[in-house]
Design a protein that fits this description.
The structure holds two protein chains of two kinds.
Chain A lengths: L1 H10 L2 E8 L11 H11 L2 E8 H5 L2 H11 L5 E6 L5 H11 L5 E6 L11 H12 L3 E4 L16 H10 L4 E4 L8 H11 L3 E4 L9 H9 L4 E2 L9 H9 L5 H15 L4
Helix pairs in contact in A: 8-9
Chain B lengths: L5 E11 L2 E6 L4 H12 L1 E8 H5 L2 H12 L5 E7 L11 H11 L1 E6 L1 H4 L5 H13 L4 E4 L13 H10 L5 E4 L9 H10 L3 E4 L8 H9 L4 E2 L9 H9 L5 H17 L7
Parallel strand pairs in B: 1-3, 3-4, 4-5, 5-6, 6-7, 7-8, 8-9
Antiparallel strand pairs in B: 1-2
The chains are: A alpha/beta, B alpha/beta.
Chain lengths: 265, 268
């Protein structure tokens, strides 16, 4: 396995567009997850990694401090600014002060975490701002028909309605929209909306899924995302490398798409 | 009538990421606590920090430890159980002693939110330490409600209380329907002398009075559950209770102070 991973890192430019730094009480991660991730990034030759800090999802001011602190850990790290609609004034201030600055690549939203539907009034000024400023927005997305009731807030079809209304936003649907049949329903969304991208961050590494997506929409709107520390990068590297898609598609997914989208050099 | 002197067994500070309304600024803890003395005669509090729950217990506890330096009198911190000890349980005893020295007096368990066990058999190495020092543990009913629809694991609470009888086990009602649970409360309190119940959501008609009449004045602990409940409401309910003065005083503050003073770490 080590050899396969070594070949991947030598062959491709790799940009992780969806990971997290920091810990979370309910994750129960042992050791030093940030340190472990940075070591993995180094070992497997990641060119860039765009993160949202767990603390920034769970807290505004403290989360912002941790985001800034994390950027100092490695020059390959770029950050999403987290917008929490429950503390909208703070979020808008962060955007206005920081969007456009180097190493802030876009905005992360998490409707399930923050328990707020995308069309809720609390998000409205954010969508308008993102549209006016042509922002890249990474949103958690998941199918609503699961035991966790909070996933209903991140239904990819609700997010698609937003992307249709605000065409200058580039919206990334994280996790391919969730589980089961939704992974394929999301393909219809992607076919209809050219401003929507997708990643398969997390434990969504189904055999054949990547091939089906590339067949249906091509490879230019599929991003490499791991969701570390929730999911180890090694699974993702091997999943993409082992998929039966063309070499050029692998290059797009591993890094070229993110490089273009986030304007990385 | 002279107003009661309260010690709040359960109050939260810090930002709640879901709501500004439920966020309590932590920059001036001394000022906040001073206002509570003035307004409600709350002379002390056991304080938990939202960051410990919503982000990471250890970091939240550390943050609160720094804040506690500003606090005086009967103001203490609540440790949210730090899962790092699952890897190094032998360090738990020292950890508790260190936190005690920082001003913490209760360990709170959030097994559902933070995904760890609370059962006696699985947590015995930690409960043994708490039991040894008579260090109180607090657990919320929402945290042991399997379905979120009143499927509370009462038997497991009983098991903990029975096996670790020197460890005060405080049941925090959180947002549960505590008004429905008198039979469970009474059964637990009558069976085990180390079970205590917070008062903030004992909403049932005469529920506080009835529990006192059945189990005595020493088993209920006033808590505001601020910011999730109005502090004045919680305090006034005790002030207005149809109880004797000594019973109200016990619930308002003496009971929790007694639990704190019974912790066998005073020399640390």
């Amino acid at each position: 396995m080590e050899q396969r991973l070594k070949k991947i890192m030598e062959k491709y430019q790799i940009i992780d567009s969806h990971l997290h730094l920091g810990v979370l009480g309910y994750m129960n991660i042992l050791g030093d997850p940030d340190g472990s991730m940075l070591k993995l990034m180094e070992k497997y030759g990641l060119d860039y990694a765009v993160f949202s800090h767990h603390a920034a999802l769970a807290s505004t001011t403290f989360g912002w401090e941790k985001t800034i602190e994390a950027l100092g850990k490695d020059s390959k790290l770029y950050a999403y600014i987290v917008f929490n609609p429950n503390h909208g004034d703070f979020g808008m201030k962060l955007l206005e002060e920081n969007i456009g600055k180097e190493r802030f690549s876009g905005v992360k939203i998490h409707p399930s975490w923050h328990r707020c539907y995308p069309a809720d009034a609390r998000y409205k000024r954010f969508w308008e701002y993102a549209h006016q400023n042509k922002l890249v927005v990474l949103s958690h997305s998941w199918n609503p028909d699961v035991a966790n009731p909070d996933q209903k807030y991140s239904d990819p079809f609700l997010l698609a309605d937003i992307a249709k209304k605000y065409r200058d936003i580039t919206l990334i649907l994280a996790h391919g929209g969730g589980r089961g049949a939704y992974l394929y329903k999301v393909l219809d969304i992607l076919k209809e909306n050219k401003n929507i991208y997708v990643d398969f961050a997390g434990d969504i590494l189904l055999p054949g899924l990547l091939e089906d997506y590339v067949d249906a929409i091509g490879s230019k709107r599929i991003l490499f995302g791991t969701d570390m520390p929730w999911s180890d990068i090694r699974y993702h590297l091997l999943w993409i490398e082992g998929s039966e898609i063309d070499e050029k598609d692998k290059r797009n997914i591993f890094g070229l798409n993110a490089k273009r989208l986030f304007k990385l050099t | 009538m002279e107003s009661l002197k309260f010690v709040d067994a359960n109050t939260w500070i810090g930002e709640n990421y879901l709501s500004r309304e439920y966020s309590i600024e932590d920059k001036n803890l001394a000022g906040l606590l001073g206002q509570r003395i003035k307004k409600y005669n709350i002379a002390g509090s056991i304080i938990s920090h939202h960051l410990s729950l919503f982000y990471w217990p250890r970091q939240g506890n550390d943050l609160l430890a720094a804040k506690l330096k500003e606090a005086r009198g009967d103001n203490f911190g609540a440790i949210l159980f730090e899962q790092e000890y699952f890897c190094e349980p032998h360090l738990f005893e020292k950890g508790i002693k260190d936190r005690y020295a920082q001003g913490f007096r209760i360990v709170r368990l959030f097994p559902k939110s933070n995904k760890y066990p609370f059962e006696a058999r699985l947590m015995s190495k930690f409960y043994e330490v708490l039991d040894h020092y008579s260090f109180p543990a607090m657990i919320g009913l929402d945290e042991i409600d399997v379905t979120g629809n009143k499927a509370i694991q009462w038997e497991r609470l009983a098991d903990i209380a029975e096996r670790f009888s020197s460890m005060p086990l405080i049941i925090d009602g959180q947002n549960s329907k505590s008004l429905l649970y008198n039979s469970y409360f009474l059964s637990l309190m009558q069976s085990f002398g180390n079970i205590y119940i917070t008062t903030h959501n004992l909403y049932g008609v005469a529920q506080i009075e009835n529990l006192v009449s059945c189990t005595g004045k020493e088993r209920l602990l006033f808590d505001s559950y601020s910011p999730y409940q109005d502090i004045g409401l919680s305090a006034q309910r005790i002030e207005e209770a149809e109880l004797k003065k000594d019973e109200k005083e016990a619930i308002a503050g003496k009971n929790i102070k007694k639990l704190i003073s019974n912790i066998k770490l005073g020399q640390v």
